[in-house]
Amino acid sequence: MIQSVNESRPFSFLTLRATDYSDRKSGMKSIVVANWKMNPGTMREAKKLFDATREAAESAKHVSVIVAPPAIFLRELRARYKGKRLGFAIQQASAEGSGAYTGDISLPQAKDAGAQYVIVGHSERRAKGESNEDAGKVVAAALESDMTPILCVGEKARSHEGEHFNVVKEQLRTGFSGVEPGKISKVLVAYEPVWAIGGEKAMSPRDMHEMAIFIRKTIIELHGEKGMGVRIIYGGAATESNAAEMLRDGDVIGLLVGHVSINEARFAALLQALENAR
Ligand code: PGA
User: Fold this and answer.
1) Ligand 1, atom nearest to 197 Cα
2) What is the pLDDT along the chain (278 residues), one digit of tens a residue?
3) In terms of Cα–Cα distance, which of 212, 201, 196 is closest to 250?
4) Which CATH class is domain 11-276?
5) Which among 110, 107, 111, 54 is positioned nearest to 80, based on CA atoms?
6) pTM of the prediction?
7) Whole-angstrom Cα Rg for the chain
8) Does the active-site annotation cover 192?
9) 8 A C-beta contact, residue 272 and residue 55
10) Best mutation site among 117, 151, 197, 208 for ligand 1 pocket (most ligand atoms within 8 Å of CB)
11) Distance 229 CA to ligand 1 centre (A)
């Protein structure tokens, strides 16, 4: 039984600490993960989208862009990229090293194809049966393989009783169960309220800020002071219109972008909005 966390709001001790953290992070680059999901339909279109993404990323020097194409396009896109600025992610991978797992991709295979990052526990994977435990195993295995896990957490719905905090707490507890305190800062937590994904209306930066404090508080409770260093990004209808505001007021260092990342003009505008907001 998960204990209700409502009584611990408004996290006054952590609000102060979170502000210190925001100050420290101001010199850092922001992170934008372009999650293409199961798009586009052909390698030819993927190359075109990739070239546009690269160009947009080049004019946003203070943003680190991580491209997460469908796995089948990854190696070829990685091979045609000679620069160092873009990162590559696999959209999901197995925690198993090898074996009889038809259809799965291992972390070593993803790494060999050029991925340095792995998206873990995306809600669209969870909807197909992936559990918190599965996510925890991939996070631990990714760190073991020297890859950066992007652990997705987020509730399907919000309630007045604050049950969504319990959902996120459990996702974090299991997701971080194999993470040593010294490696907490190597994990990227993508908070994605499932109800916002795919639309045009993101959560308010104020609510994101509250959730960021809660995420840090939870990880500190589980793993001690080093939890303060956890890196948090936001996902769910992140667009060119709300990106800058979310980074300014949401207490996050970046965004996980879905449908806007496959629209060349909108994605370029989103990166530019972040660049101009500095
Ligand atoms: P969206 O998707 O930007 O289309 O809402 C985000 C995600 O699912 O990662």
Assistant:
1) 5
2) 343 444 444 444 444 344 444 444 456 799 999 999 999 999 999 999 999 999 999 999 999 999 999 999 999 999 999 998 899 999 999 999 999 999 999 999 999 999 999 999 999 999 999 999 999 999 999 999 999 999 999 999 998 999 999 999 999 999 999 999 999 999 999 999 999 999 999 999 999 999 999 999 999 999 999 999 999 999 999 999 999 999 999 999 999 999 999 999 999 999 999 999 98
3) 212
4) alpha beta
5) 54
6) 0.91
7) 18
8) yes
9) no
10) 197
11) 25
Structure tokens of 156? 């399907």
Map out the domains of the chain as residue ranges. Answer: 11-276
Cα(7) to centroid of ligand 1, in Å?
A: 31
Q: Which of 124, 155, 192, 240 is catalytic?
A: 192
The ligand 1 atom at the shortest distance from the C-alpha of residue 124 is: 8
From 125, 192, 201, 233, give the residue whose CB has the most ligand 1 atoms within 8 Å, as the site to mutate. Answer: 192
Active site (annotated) includes residue 155: no
In terms of Cβ atoms closer than 10 Å to its own Cβ (0-12, 13-18, 19+), residue 31 is buried
